[in-house]
Specification:
The complex is a heterodimer.
Chain A (H helix, E strand, L loop, with lengths): L1 H27 L14 H11 L5 H13 L5 E2 L4 E2 H36 L4 H15 L2 H15 L17 H39 L2 H8 L4 H30 L2 H6 L5 H10 L3 H29 L6
Antiparallel strand pairs in A: 1-2
Helix pairs in contact in A: 1-12, 4-5, 4-7, 4-9, 5-7, 6-7, 7-9, 8-9, 9-12
Chain B lengths: L3 E14 L2 E14 L3 E5 L6 H9 L7 E10 L2 E2 L5 H7 L4 E4 L3 H4 L6 H12 L4 H14 L5 H4 L9 H13 L5 E5 L7 H18 L2 E6 L2 H7 L2 E6 L2 E7 H6 L4 H8 L39 H5 L5 E2 L5 E2 L12
Parallel strand pairs in B: 3-8, 3-9, 6-7, 7-8
Antiparallel strand pairs in B: 1-2, 1-4, 4-5, 9-10, 10-12, 11-12
Helix pairs in contact in B: 4-5, 4-7, 5-7, 7-8
The chains are: A mainly alpha, B alpha/beta.
Chain lengths: 317, 328
């Protein structure tokens, strides 16, 4: 186990080094930068700014600088916001995380329960309804569901706010603050859950269908175990095994924000920040964010492997 | 005369496929006495496993269904009691061992847990007591280091050991009837003998009745008291093992016995019954064996023979032994 972890750690570092080089080169070699973006600046001022930001140095040197800073915990300085990238992340990421963790929790909960029941009652009317609903939810684009729900729930019925995280100008604290945020996050969480639950339910349903045909399920029944025990102790545990790899892959998604949802609901998340930075070519922030996602992805994969080992005794690390 | 542990009357189990209904078990009646080992023999697809599954109430619905019959067990009809009651009988009064030990145990639960489950469910033992009993049971089925084995997982044991574990699970609640569905088919020959010895030992020590399902006549000769031969979902012949092996009446039984290799006799070619098992979807009113039978008569093609008693406990369903049938 410990030698495995050491080896994995080595690989992780190598992969991240490769990823960092790729990320940096892609952004560095794109024509234009933050300075070219501003048409009003005279040429000499532009040259001056490039000198200040070090944009006129050779690419490799810039990469080494970037990496050196990153190792010291400095992921760069946002040019458009004039703040360190990490500070900005800290300001925005938790808002995205709040949406993501809540919707992921509900997505998984619903997917497991609906998937298990649908598989257990395959071809029943419940199963058929679930499948129709799933395909409908999967085929309707998020912006449509989002805008549609805003129209119904916020504009027509006025039950929920159409967007944002707090009421404009609000200075609520404590429980009031929490209530306000929950009220605002309701719609985006519903939309994100609706979008995610379809594929995951299908996944659990088909895993479950595979498992409940296995011999050991018959054995469990032959032992006189209760159906509930057969389903949840014997079948679900086996059906969950392939899904455990997915838990690790959720990690970058939890922090990565959602461009469309955050835009529609005007949620102050990292996805929105990312879009803004894109339009002004704030490369340090974009690079920092992409690198951050790369790190999370690698860690997520490692977590998946370790979880797999914990859940399935047959997997040796 | 010993009491019957279980009486099955006119059991019929059908499977509904897109092409039509398959009569997997077609009007089968059988009795198993206390402490008796009954073997059901037949080729693949003759309905022997489905008979066992019907007793356990484990026929996969809705594709399969027990359509008719009665299964009397301790004053109750297993086909007409509710699920809850049936569940309390399964694993407790009637236990079952399956063909594939490798896939019959849950890969993510420890051996101990799987042995403990019925003990906690039916005997209401505490976790601690169940564990203690599980270790005893594992030792009882001849596995050394039982304390370590109960904490291991199925993939860490061999097929023979897993089948012993299955037996340990099956006998954990001292069942009155043990159903073994081809328990030795997936195992090496030497292991087969050990497993059969174990079944015989269980029967002798605790007077458990055993319903053994097999296609191996060697196994039958070794362990059975009473033999039932099935063909295409019907019983064609049954009788005490000695009678049946010495005087097989039905041409199918005769064929089965002829196709068994005899130790010390080398034949260039092993006998096999000509033809193939009929398609279960195309069965008509006839003896199902007629097109493979060397004694086939005109009546065999148009009418189904009924199971009738002959000498002793032996019964046969064949027109050859019916009075007043023209043998031509």
């Amino acid at each position: 186990m410990s030698t495995y972890l050491m080896r994995r750690l080595m690989y992780m570092i190598l992969i991240l080094l490769g990823a960092s080089l790729l990320i940096f080169l892609l952004y560095a070699m794109m024509p234009g930068d933050f300075v070219t973006n501003n048409f009003k600046l005279p040429a000499e001022r532009k040259a001056e700014l490039r000198e200040i930001y070090g944009l006129n140095k050779p690419v490799l040197e810039r990469y080494m600088n970037w990496m050196n800073n990153a190792f010291h915990g400095n992921f760069g300085f946002s040019l458009s916001q004039q703040k360190p990238v990490l500070t900005l992340f800290n300001d925005y990421i938790w808002n995205s995380f709040l949406l993501a963790i809540t919707s992921t929790f509900f997505t998984w909960l619903l997917a497991v329960v609906i998937g298990v029941v649908a598989a257990y009652k395959q071809y029943s009317w419940f199963d058929t309804m679930v499948m129709i609903f799933i395909f409908a939810a999967m085929s309707i684009p998020s912006f449509f569901i989002g805008l549609f729900l805003i129209k119904i729930m916020a504009v027509d019925l006025k039950w929920l706010p159409p967007g944002g995280m707090l009421v404009t100008g609000s200075n609520a604290t404590g429980m009031e603050y929490i209530k306000e945020v929950v009220h605002h996050m309701f719609l985006p969480v519903v939309v994100m859950t609706l979008l995610g639950v379809g594929s995951l339910t299908r996944y659990f349903r088909s895993n479950m269908l595979d498992v409940i045909r296995q011999d050991f399920i018959r054995t469990a029944r032959a032992k006189g175990m209760k159906e509930r025990v057969v389903l949840y102790r014997h079948a679900l545990r086996n059906a969950m095994l392939p899904a455990i790899t997915l838990i690790g892959f959720e990690l970058p998604g939890l922090f990565g924000g959602s461009l469309i949802i955050e835009k529609i609901f005007n949620w102050p998340g990292i996805g929105q920040l990312y879009m803004q930075s894109f339009t002004v070519r704030d490369y340090p922030l974009l690079m920092g964010f992409t690198m951050f996602i790369a790190i999370l992805t690698v860690i997520g994969t490692l977590i998946s492997d370790i979880l797999y080992h914990v859940a399935d005794p047959r997997v040796k690390l | 005369m010993k009491n019957n542990v279980i009486e099955i009357d006119h059991l019929s189990t059908y499977f509904y496929t897109e092409e039509g209904a398959v009569k997997a078990v077609n009007d089968v009646s059988l009795r198993i006495r206390e402490g008796e080992t009954v073997c059901i023999v037949g080729e693949s697809g003759c309905g022997k496993s489905v008979t066992a599954m019907s007793i356990m109430g484990l026929v996969e619905e809705p594709s399969g269904k027990v359509v008719d019959g009665r299964i009397h067990f301790e004053g109750r009809d297993l086909l007409r009691i509710d699920k809850h009651e049936l569940r309390q009988i399964r694993g407790n009064d009637i236990a079952m061992i399956f063909q594939e030990p490798m896939s019959s145990l849950n890969p993510v639960l420890t051996i101990g847990m799987q042995v403990m489950e019925p003990l906690m469910e039916h005997q209401k033992l505490s976790k601690k007591e169940a564990r203690k009993r599980a270790i005893e049971l594992v030792e009882l089925v001849g596995i050394s280091r039982p304390e370590q084995i109960v904490d291991s997982y199925p993939h860490e044991l061999s097929g023979g050991m897993l089948q012993r574990i299955m037996i340990a699970i099956a006998i954990s609640c001292n069942p009155k009837l043990l159903i073994a569905d081809e328990p030795t088919t997936a195992l090496d020959v030497t292991i087969q003998a050990q497993i059969l010895d174990m079944l015989r030992q269980i029967k002798e020590e605790s007077n458990t009745s055993i319903l053994l399902i097999t296609h191996d006549l060697g196994v039958v000769a070794e362990i059975a008291d009473y033999v039932i031969v099935m063909y295409s979902g019907k019983i064609v012949e049954e009788g005490d093992v000695v009678e049946l092996f010495e005087h097989p009446l039905h041409p199918y039984t005769q064929g089965l016995l002829r196709s068994k290799p005899i130790i010390g006799q080398r034949q260039d070619e092993l006998y096999s019954i000509p033809g193939q098992v009929p398609n279960p979807l195309e069965l008509k009113e006839s003896c199902y064996f007629y097109d493979r039978c060397e004694h086939c008569m005109s009546i065999c093609r148009t009418q189904q023979p009924v199971l009738h008693s002959r000498a002793g406990r032996q019964k046969v369903a064949c027109w050859l032994y019916e009075e007043g049938v023209s043998h031509g």
